[in-house]
Design brief:
Number of strands: 10
Helix content: 10-25%
Length: 198
């Protein structure tokens, strides 16, 4: 699915680049006081014999430009996992994330800009089949790109590079599980669409 999204994004970028060259105009860009919403929606399915697994995710964000290059905002994420083998469920779980983020855009007023994002999330997991719950925190730093296809709409992508998470099961005596990630994993490329309010 991510390959399909990546291909679609490249096609849109190529089309708009040709149009921009033909019209010799620049569109989009951010400045102090701008408000934007963004987000991504994903669905994946994998089948093997009688076994089928599904993943659905949605992750909206809302941000405000504190200055010409710095934006801050709130984000929400929900992911569900389900799977069955010949009609018998073996996966039924969900994850809810609520957090804040900050971004620095290097050329925010341009049609194309690189940015860095730092986000902090509170995460709650619920495994219904195992009757198990856990919660924790996630801190992640990622670079990204933003490209305006019109005055109000942009396509963006981020790649996870540096992250730390901690999780603890919801029962007495449970110990925290900590995880530290560093590196570029193309499976962690996230694409989204941005709408800027005038």
């Amino acid at each position: 699915m991510k390959k399909l999204l990546f291909t679609a994004a490249i096609a849109v970028l190529g089309f708009t680049s040709v149009n921009a060259q033909d019209e010799m105009t620049t569109v989009g860009g951010f400045e102090e006081g701008d408000v934007f919403i963004s987000g991504s929606v994903g669905f994946g399915n994998e089948s093997f014999g009688d076994e089928s697994t599904n993943v659905f995710s949605i992750a909206p964000k809302a941000g405000y430009f504190l200055s010409d290059n710095i934006a801050a905002g709130l984000k929400l994420g929900y992911t569900s996992f389900s799977g069955d083998n010949d009609g018998v469920d073996f996966v039924d779980a969900s994850e809810l994330a609520i957090g804040v983020f900050g971004r620095y855009y290097f050329t925010a007023d341009d049609q194309f800009s690189l940015f860095t994002e730092l986000g902090v999330d509170y995460i709650s997991n619920d495994d219904k089949l195992a009757d198990a719950k856990s919660d924790g925190f996630d801190i992640a730093f990622a670079p990204g790109i933003s490209y305006f296809v019109s005055d109000n709409f942009a396509i963006e992508a981020t790649v996870g590079v540096l992250g730390y998470s901690t999780e603890k099961a919801d029962f007495d005596g449970a110990e925290s599980r900590n995880n530290f990630d560093f590196g570029v994993n193309f499976a962690d490329i996230n694409f989204g669409v941005v709408y800027k309010f005038n």
